[in-house]
Amino acid sequence: MSNTSIENVLASFSGNIFSTYNLLKKIHKNLNFSFGIDFSSEASFPKFTNMVRNFIARELIEKPNKSGKSLILNERTVLQFIVSRKYMFHGCSMDNLKGYLFDFSLEELYKKLSQENLNEIDVIAKKEKEVIAQPIHTEPIKTDKFIHSSVCDGFYIITQDGMFGEEDLNKLKNILFKFKNKNTN
């Protein structure tokens, strides 16, 4: 099924989670990635429902409209769901995708769906690395019952006060230091 065919199937779509499930059950084999759901299994519908609700809660897809207690997904939200699954299949995390697809037009979302190479995954993943790259304390920090002490760049030990003697902590630091040097060379 070509991208144009998928557009035709999704065009003007509006339906509850069960309708969306049935729609994706029909087209999932024509996509070049896995949804992570075995649509032939009886347990697939509850898993799909939980997945959609999780994507909404984590802001990977926009909040759909409601009709009573039912969620009504439209072409845009279904397309965001499909593209999110594609990005996750290619290694992007849910945290990095949060809100990422909200500003794209339908045309841009269809373009991302048809793209073979997802170059921007590196840009999306960089968001997470920038948050992690914060200064690390070199002196032990005592918080309530725990002591946080830095071993070397990027590694620290969190121990309960009095759990290890100084000699044991130094042994652990040496092991981690050797592990870090082995993996960076």
Note down, in words, how this protein is organized.
The structure is a single chain. With 185 residues, this protein is α+β, with helices and mostly antiparallel strands. It has 2 domains: 3-131, no CATH class; 141-184, no CATH class. Helix content is 50%, strand content 14%. It contains 8 helices and 6 strands, in the order αβααββααααβββα. The strands form 2 sheets. A 3-stranded antiparallel sheet has the order 1-3-2. A hairpin with a 2-residue loop joins β4 (141-143) and β5 (146-152). The protein is elongated. The N and C termini lie far apart (46 Å). The model is unreliable at 128-137 (pLDDT under 50).
Main-sheet strand order equals 1-3-2
Query: How much strand?
Result: 5-15%
Overall pLDDT score: 78
Number of DSSP-assigned strands: 6
- Kindly give the count of domains: 2
For the termini, the CA-CA separation is 46 Å
Number of helices: 8
Overall geometry comes to elongated
- Helical fraction equals 40-55%
Radius of gyration: 23 Å
Q: What are the segments in which pLDDT stays under 50 over at least 5 consecutive residues? A: 128-137
Order of helices and strands: HEHHEEHHHHEEEH
What is the compact description of this entry?
This protein has 185 residues and is of the alpha+beta class. Helices cover 50% and strands 14% of the residues. It is built from eight helices and six strands; from the N terminus they run H-E-H-H-E-E-H-H-H-H-E-E-E-H.
